[in-house]
Amino acid sequence: MGLGRARTLRDRSTDAERAMWRALRNRRLSGHKFRRQHPIEPYVVDFVCISARLIVEIDGGQHADRENDDAKRTAHLESRGFKVIRCWNNEIFENMDGVQQAILEHLKAQASSPQPSPPKGGEGESNDP
User: Fold this and answer.
1) Is the Cβ–Cβ distance between 40 and 48 less than 8 Å?
2) Whole-prediction pTM
3) How many domains is the chain partitioned into structurally?
4) Residue 23 CB: number of other CB atoms within 10 A?
5) pLDDT tens for each residue of 47-80
6) Which CATH number does the domain housing residue 85 bear?
7) Alpha-carbon distance 32 to 15, whole Å?
């Protein structure tokens, strides 16, 4: 996927993604730096705060039919040390304050818990009998 795909997705942002970006960009949410349409191979995530290892995914109606794919994606990202939260489009339009508050709560929780290093090839594996 990579950077080229991320750039294409940025250019084709949905209304909900644009609204969320206005709320998150330039450290507007309590000083936390977010990136949008950021590649975390093999995926491109909607928004990520790298320092807090928090991913915010924006889901539209098409995601109702993709629960298995989304669960697989979330499991992979969480195996890399990220926390993934999902927000529905209508939540962003109808309750942006609540969405921002939920993100802040997750940011605080991530900051207060020790973060394990993401697994790297071979680490944690033992050849002991």
Assistant:
1) yes
2) 0.78
3) 1
4) 16
5) 999 999 999 999 886 645 677 888 999 999 999 9
6) 3.40.960.10
7) 22
